[in-house]
Amino acid sequence: MRFKFPLIAIGLEIFMIVLFGLFVQYETDQHTQQRNITKPTDLATFLELYPLFQDVHVMIFVGFGFLMTFLKKYGFSSVGINLLIAALGLQWGTIAQGILHSHGQKINIGIKNMINADFSTATVLISFGAVLGKTSPIQMLIMTIIEIAFFAGNEYLVGEIFKASDIGASMTIHAFGAYFGLAVAGILYRPGLRRGHENEESVYHSDLFAMIGTLFLWMFWPSFNSAIAEPGDKQYRAIVNTYFSLAACVLTAYAFSSLVEPRGKLDMVHIQNATLAGGVAVGTCADMTIHPFGSMIIGSIAGIVSVFGYKFLSPLFTTKLRIHDTCGVHNLHGLPGVTGGLAGIVAVAMGASNTSTMVMQAAALGSSIGTAVVGGLITGLILKLPFLGQPSDQNCYDDSVYWEVPRLREHDNHFHGHGDHSQLEPEV
Amino acid sequence: MRFKFPLIAIGLEIFMIVLFGLFVQYETDQHTQQRNITKPTDLATFLELYPLFQDVHVMIFVGFGFLMTFLKKYGFSSVGINLLIAALGLQWGTIAQGILHSHGQKINIGIKNMINADFSTATVLISFGAVLGKTSPIQMLIMTIIEIAFFAGNEYLVGEIFKASDIGASMTIHAFGAYFGLAVAGILYRPGLRRGHENEESVYHSDLFAMIGTLFLWMFWPSFNSAIAEPGDKQYRAIVNTYFSLAACVLTAYAFSSLVEPRGKLDMVHIQNATLAGGVAVGTCADMTIHPFGSMIIGSIAGIVSVFGYKFLSPLFTTKLRIHDTCGVHNLHGLPGVTGGLAGIVAVAMGASNTSTMVMQAAALGSSIGTAVVGGLITGLILKLPFLGQPSDQNCYDDSVYWEVPRLREHDNHFHGHGDHSQLEPEV
Amino acid sequence: MRFKFPLIAIGLEIFMIVLFGLFVQYETDQHTQQRNITKPTDLATFLELYPLFQDVHVMIFVGFGFLMTFLKKYGFSSVGINLLIAALGLQWGTIAQGILHSHGQKINIGIKNMINADFSTATVLISFGAVLGKTSPIQMLIMTIIEIAFFAGNEYLVGEIFKASDIGASMTIHAFGAYFGLAVAGILYRPGLRRGHENEESVYHSDLFAMIGTLFLWMFWPSFNSAIAEPGDKQYRAIVNTYFSLAACVLTAYAFSSLVEPRGKLDMVHIQNATLAGGVAVGTCADMTIHPFGSMIIGSIAGIVSVFGYKFLSPLFTTKLRIHDTCGVHNLHGLPGVTGGLAGIVAVAMGASNTSTMVMQAAALGSSIGTAVVGGLITGLILKLPFLGQPSDQNCYDDSVYWEVPRLREHDNHFHGHGDHSQLEPEV
Questions:
Q1: Which phi and psi (to 5°) does residue B166 adopt?
Q2: Lesser CB count within 10 Å: N end or C end of chain B?
Q3: CA nearest B77 in A: which residue?
């Protein structure tokens, strides 16, 4: 990737700057220029929502970034390429979503645009989890551009055409990101790695780094599900419901993690991921009157579904469907996202919302999965183009292909300065 | 713990869902149903206090969780069981505190309930520190249920009956949690470990992980001490006083850490813990007019007391009182909590508050310690029941008893793929 | 440092308490005592700005602290001495800045004082990066006192006399801190280490710890640049511009990191640092009407400048100028700070601000660099005094000089309990 990666990155940034010059303005400009616009400014609510934006921001960069550092030799890429994808994605997401919603006007940057820009990157980061360790930075830049375009289209369809409820984006972000990623992973399947790869495992401290990601996602999920909710009752309920759904999910995730292991031990993969499924699954109906105990039921189910997915479905996907999902995003985002979509239909049926219908909710779920699969398949085919720097099977899950890696990986004998130097690894 | 742990966890979660179904409603429901209630909604202040709630949330899950990761082989349990305790505790705390304060009405969930729910888990997490490495997850689930019941009772007594001031909960959370934990640790004392355990030590990076916990606790402590303070002057003072108390505490903690070590070196145990004592000790009088320099004096004293506790008291407790306190919670929460209680009495005597009396403050301190000791002794006896999965002496401070642990703990020779494989540990 | 360090630390804390007793009061006191004061209280905005303060707080303690943990044996000092400096600095900064701005009145503590106190510590923490690993804790306490005095003087000059714009402090904090640190590092130059030091390198996990710092700095930088901005349009723009500047900066930093390495690989030093240059460089004109695409251009340039600095300038500084800059603060804060100062001049020239002039902006830039260099040279000479505990060349970049370090640094063979014990390092 000697020159391809830098030139593509620079080219994309120049493209973004040009697009911003053409289409983006301060929200406050609109008042100066177009006095007849009646839409009230959200400048007044900027500082009020800013803490929620920052919580979401932490989820995107620290949450997703560190959650993926569990692999023993792929921490630089996990946290580093996560940052790269998100930095590009938030610029492109501002444009892609803004164009669709601005009806030919310029895009006025307010706090909700920034939250939505962060949201649109989440979709790509979820898909990134499915192909983690098996793709190049160039491929990820391209996936970012394509996926966010599809995401913005589907999100427009769901919100503006179907007028479906999906305040925490169980369908439009989580299910979408997961099935998009699975489709890409299916196309990029590597038969040579069907028996696994020696680097595809964690070490003790990489699992602790991953817990940093888990906890920041877990703690700030109420902000994720409520950040763009209607102020007042709905936003209040989105926070409260998510808070309790996540708490309930932890209990069932721990219980079933122990239950499905022959010796009853807890598995870090489940703890790092399935504890978050409650946040995903309550997303669609987070702002509805599902009551705290209702959200706890949803969370409990999500924790169980997610653990079962990791334990039983993921191995099947690899062997039978030839889809290898590195981080198990299907179990954290796919299944719980679908659970959330279904919970939304049930909640609407039970009268927990007066703004949507069961049919529209079902259409939203179908559209999200369908668009994701189609978009993912197309993206996968494009990413297969030979000049995009995809690593060889042997080099998968290894930072040293794309990164300068410290001469010594951690504290082997040499670390003490007087140990056996024979383990010194020549710089790769 | 093949089936016991999962069944107990699932049972508790079902119990919580039933309790929530019976007793908990949205705050906004109260207006629809009971128009004659005059207590104003705090929906308006929800978003205003939400950032403070999130700060407390981070303290509970990242702060306490990572603070305890200092042990070299017990990081999964520290951060993982911390999450489990807190997730159960916040549900149970919502009920236990809510029932006492709702006077027969349904519990209306507002932002303060969520903050208080997080607070009630803090008590258990402090006690968890005293028995860290020596107990099973089942024991911790049971301790969570019992301790929060005692905590809620004492908190009601202190706040509603004595009407004492304890805005940052030096007495009701910190001293309570510490002495409760010490009482449990005393009952669970293991003579076989009186000479220590080879796993009861840190490694370099586990100490750095612990600093993540320290810093998030340190930074967000002003939010902890002010989150439920009366809006306006009192909340403002709670933030300002805590900010300066903590800063002063750092200086004395560093100074005395160096002073008590023969070669004048700093000790990570002190830096990780004693730097936080200023937040604990200023808690009771944080919202009083003690003036910034007054809070700095309190913080300075707390830093000194805490370092002395770690250096001189902890060894005595283990050898003489047969109480082994893994994290030294007595030095971080116990002594500084009592210091805070005493500072509150002095502050009230000096006229820094017009809502409490010296007698009531002293009663609150006595009640907190007394309830904690009694509750801790009872809990300890229950936890001694033989079928609760307590680890053997040999297996203490080791994640691998309850967790699937990566085949390789960190980067030993094998990590490079060409080292000496003889160190390969067979999966435990 | 057997007694020197503790006595100096205790003495400084007592000094601070006395100063606070004499000069500092609650903001709310002013109303009680001096009814004729017309300056409105900012108590009303306390909770509104408190989340931004907390973001800045996280940047100071976790951001700067962990960013410097990249060295393999210097993590305790990086995060620990960072905490010590900041805790002292925020107390002293409250006094030093307060005295200058209070015009003979008492200093009223409001939210802006707390933000400014944190800001003043940032300057020292930047300079700390230049001398990291080569100085003693005592030296850092002394540098904190001197540097903040110079900082407060320059900040007063820039803001009150020149009335220049520098809302995100590209000049007064970043350039100032960098050139101050370089001047100190120049005076403290160690010819014995001109060929480097075996400890001056990272290991795999220390680089991941550093990314915690990077990300929290990156995410919260919009708060840093807007925290003390004028409410309304200006604060809104400061947030939006910084958000997009940082995103653009990531793309160019990654591109040029790859471009300047012979094999096209990414370098963790660049990713940890140069991705932040966009936040530094947009600081001066963050609240001006530079438009989102303008801020993206500034961010893009900053990312490039910073990578070039690390790659080409830093080696030159060490060999030709005899200035060894451990963390490369010149590349992260110096060059981007100057870039920010120049961008401010251009922005004023283009009419993006109506409150400042090009001349005053240039004067502010010159004053910041000039004051920093003079202050740094004086400080360096003082720090050279022989009784301040400076480590020998051999002991540089090693925690064990000032810290009790765990018997085992990380997971060597012994970690498994059955490995080869010959690597056991006797406690230093």
A1: -160, 55
A2: C
A3: A266
Query: Which residues are CB-neighbours of C143 under 8 A, at least 6 positions away?
Result: C124, C127, C128, C135, C184, C379, C383
Phi first, then psi: what are they for C255, rounded to 5°? -60, -50
How many contacts (CB atoms, under 8 Å) link A and C? Answer: 199
Q: How many helices (H) and strands (E) does chain C have?
A: 17, 3
Q: Is B179 exposed, middle or buried (0-12, 13-18, 19+ CB in 10 A)?
A: buried
Contact residues on chain A for C219, CB-CB shorter than 8 A: 54, 57-58, 61-62
Least confident of A142-156, B58-72, B344-358: B344-358
Q: When comparing pLDDT for C426 and B33, which is higher?
A: B33
Q: What pLDDT does residue B410 have? A: 53
Angle (deg, nearest 10), helices B4-23 and A291-308: 160
**Of A161, A188, A138, nearest in space to A376 by CA:** A188
Q: What residues of chain C lie within 8 A of the CB of A20, using their CB?
A: 244, 291-293, 296
Which of A24, A409, A418 is nearest residue C204 as measured by Cβ atoms? A409
pLDDT at C30: 67
- By Cβ distance, the residue of C212, C293, C413 closest to A24 is C293
Name every residue whose Cβ is closer than 8 Å to that of residue C136 and which is 6 or more positions away in sequence: C1, C5, C388, C389, C390, C391, C402
Is B414's pLDDT higher than 80?
Answer: no
Residues contacting residue A422 through CB under 8 Å, at least 6 positions apart: none
3-state secondary structure at position A38: coil
* Contact predicate C273/C210, CB 8 Å: no
Among A91, A208, A219, A421, pick the best mutation site for testing chain C contact (most C Cβ within 10 A). A91
Sign for the CA dihedral angle at C62, C64, C69, C70 comes to positive
d(CA C266, CA B335): 50
* Nearest residue to C256 via CA among C295, C204, C309, C219: C309
**Distance of alpha carbon C390 from its chain centroid, rounded?**
22
- Pairwise CA distance, residues B139 & B390, whole Å: 7
Q: Would you state the structure tokens that stand for residue C32, as one six-digit string?
A: 């009680």
DSSP string, A98-158: HHHHHTTSPEEE-HHHHHHHHHHHHHHHHHHHHHTTSS-HHHHHHHHHHHHHHHHHHHHII
Residues C238, C246: Cα–Cα separation, whole Å: 12
Q: Does the distance separating the beta carbons of B258 and C5 come in below 8 Å?
A: yes
ipTM for this prediction: 0.94
Cα B24 to chain centroid, rounded = 25
For B250-268, the pLDDT digits (tens) are 999 999 999 999 999 999 9
Smallest CA-to-CA distance from A219 within B79, C23, B180 is with B79
Q: How far, in Å, CA of A377 to CA of A374, rounded?
A: 5
Helix, strand, coil percentages, rounded to 5, for chain B:
70, 0, 25
In angstroms, the CA C399 to CA B94 distance is 45
* Whole-prediction pTM: 0.95
User: Residue A140, by phi and psi: left (phi above 0), alpha (psi -120 to 50) or beta?
Assistant: alpha
Check CB contact under 8 Å for A6 and C264.
yes
Q: Which amino acid is at B68?
A: M
Which residues 6+ apart lie within 8 Å of B270 measured at CB? B253, B254, B256, B257, B306, B307, B310, B311
H or E segment at A82? helix A75-102
- CA dist., res. C223 & res. C233, Å (int): 15
Cβ-nearest to B258 among C6, C24, C420: C6
Q: Which residue of C has its CA nearest to A57?
A: C219
What's the CA gap between C218 and C59, in Å, rounded? 9
Do B403 and A235 lie within an 8 Å CB cutoff? no
- From residue B369, how far is each of A49, A423, B338, B342, C307 by CA, in Å? 41, 55, 9, 13, 57
